[in-house]
Amino acid sequence: MHFTSSLVTLAVLCGLVAAVPTAPAPRDCSAEVARYNQERREARGLSKRTFYTQMLNLTCTLAPETILDDYVSNPPVRTSITEGQPGVAFTVDIGVLDTTTCKPLSGVMVELWGPNAVGQYGSTFLRGATLTASNGIAEFKTIYPGYTSDAANHLNVLVHPTSAESGGVAHVGQLFFTDPWTDIIGKYTNYNKNTNSRKKNAQDPNFAAANKNGFNSIIDVESIGDDWADDEGIIGYITVGVNPKKLVA
Known about the structure:
This is Extracellular dioxygenase. InterPro entries: Intradiol_dOase_core (IPR015889). By secondary structure, the chain is α+β, with helices and mostly antiparallel strands. It contains four helices and eleven strands, in the order αβαββββββββααββ. It has helices spanning 2-19, 30-42, 179-185, 205-210; strands at residues 27-28, 59-60, 89-98, 103-104, 109-113, 127-131, 137-143, 154-159, 171-176, 220-223, 234-242. Strands 3, 4, 7, 10 and 11 form a five-stranded mixed sheet that branches. The chain has a four-stranded antiparallel sheet with strand order 6-5-8-9. It has a two-stranded antiparallel ribbon with strand order 1-2. The longest helix is centred in the first third of the chain and has 18 residues, at 2-19.
């Protein structure tokens, strides 16, 4: 009788454990994202030149939210945002991935802004917004940013869930660089006039906040040609996971 009672108790306990909800594991989108990233590079006919051996962010992981820093609302809708600011030409390729479907998110408004070569933000320059294309990519032509005194070198990004800048906010993030890239570019014309104190990634708590839960917020940078610093510039890729059905602001 005691043995039968124990079996009943065990069965009840097993049922309770099975009923406890578990957190969903990050969805593995490695095949889709690898193909997505390869197509982005092949579209430009580029070979990979980078500090990394493979593209980052291969799972459907939400990009962590970070502080909204140096923000000016309603930037002009445009892809070229330099306004004549001198610096190393930088094409930023931001792929927006819907984490609920593992598919590129098309037709949503993405904002990008950053400081100039000497680490100063402006009210209009180096700011802009554009819609993601059918492949989920928002492309901006800007310059590699100069570092500020209060943060590791980064660009700022904001993703709306719709095609309108007034349509709420699905993501606010900061996109960083490897320290070696900032070291190299910091030696070039205009950048070498930056008088701000340098803060590296490991010293910035916002860098830690932006790189968690399996997401990597470092832009994968590659040079276009041998004269990238003075002529053709560089290209940066990053894939940002967002949930368009969940507003953060």
